[in-house]
Amino acid sequence: MTQYVLIVAGGKGIRMGGDIPKQFLPIGGVPVLMRTMDAFYAYNQDIQIILVLPHDQQAFWQDLCRKHHFERPYRIADGGETRFHSVKNGLALVETPALVGVHDGVRPFVSSDVIRRCYAEASQKHAVVPCVNVVETLRHVQEERSVTVPRDEYRLVQTPQVFDATLLKKAYEQPYSPQFTDDASVVESMGMVVSLIEGNRENIKITTPFDLKIASALLEECSI
Ligand SMILES: Nc1ccn([C@@H]2O[C@H](COP(=O)(O)OP(=O)(O)OP(=O)(O)O)[C@@H](O)[C@H]2O)c(=O)n1
Ligand SMILES: C[C@](O)(CO)[C@H](O)COP(=O)(O)O
């Protein structure tokens, strides 16, 4: 079955700050977004990549591609007001039947093994999310008080989140809700069950300047 991935890079990067959008910042000399797209080509050279980028950043991106001789095939869709709207714009280019993954453009360290297992599981279970265990103690904060909660009952959620494309397109016909912080939450709100698989801990979301430091360190350690 055809495999798609929507690489969403339509955000504002407010927590990162700075003049250059975080998806274009270099890690080891290569822009984050190119590394992320390369991770999917490394997994499958035939995967259909749809890059979702704010319209006003697309010319800058094309310049960057020329400068870095980045010549991978992909199609482009305009970013939207929220991640939900960006995904919806990208999904408009997806033809069914297919499997479609949604991956944050700022998660360049996803491993080929995790991508492969997400798509393989989605071909059986229809909705798959990679996640990792919580390794610190977790407290639930309620107004002035807080309590420790059993951390084994929680997971940290990553991307790519992979779905049967017909299912995901239907889910994204729902009206937007601020509760939709990822794609699984959109699918779940239709009453669907989401399967979890083990992610890779290096698959961090580059969100703050601190994460850039971690990313540089990871680059030295990993060959992914
Ligand atoms: N309107 C939006 C908002 C987010 N994203 C993407 O969703 C991913 C996860 O979002 P996040 O890391 O929070 O990025 P930003 O929204 O850019 O960050 P911030 O909240 O700090 O502004 C990123 O790859 C981001 O580009 C998107 O495609 N369209
Ligand atoms: C999709 C996501 O990366 C899963 O962990 C996350 O929910 C994105 O959250 P953000 O607040 O848009 O960064």
UniProtKB/TrEMBL annotation:
Keywords annotated in UniProt: Isoprene biosynthesis, Nucleotidyltransferase, Transferase
One Pfam assignment: IspD
Protein's GO biological process: isopentenyl diphosphate biosynthetic process, methylerythritol 4-phosphate pathway
Metabolic or biological pathway: Isoprenoid biosynthesis; isopentenyl diphosphate biosynthesis via DXP pathway; isopentenyl diphosphate from 1-deoxy-D-xylulose 5-phosphate: step 2/6
GO molecular function, one term: 2-C-methyl-D-erythritol 4-phosphate cytidylyltransferase activity
Recorded catalytic activity of this chain's protein: 2-C-methyl-D-erythritol 4-phosphate + CTP + H(+) = 4-CDP-2-C-methyl-D-erythritol + diphosphate
Sites marked Transition state stabilizer: 15, 22
Entry's EC annotation: 2.7.7.60
Site positions (Positions MEP for the nucleophilic attack): 151, 205
SUPFAM superfamilies: Nucleotide-diphospho-sugar transferases
NCBIfam families: ispD, PRK00155.2-3
Task of the protein: Catalyzes the formation of 4-diphosphocytidyl-2-C-methyl-D-erythritol from CTP and 2-C-methyl-D-erythritol 4-phosphate (MEP).
Family the UniProt entry places it in: Belongs to the IspD/TarI cytidylyltransferase family. IspD subfamily.
HAMAP family linked: IspD
Name the record gives this protein: 2-C-methyl-D-erythritol 4-phosphate cytidylyltransferase
Species this chain originates from: Caecibacteroides pullorum
Encoding gene, per UniProt annotation: ispD
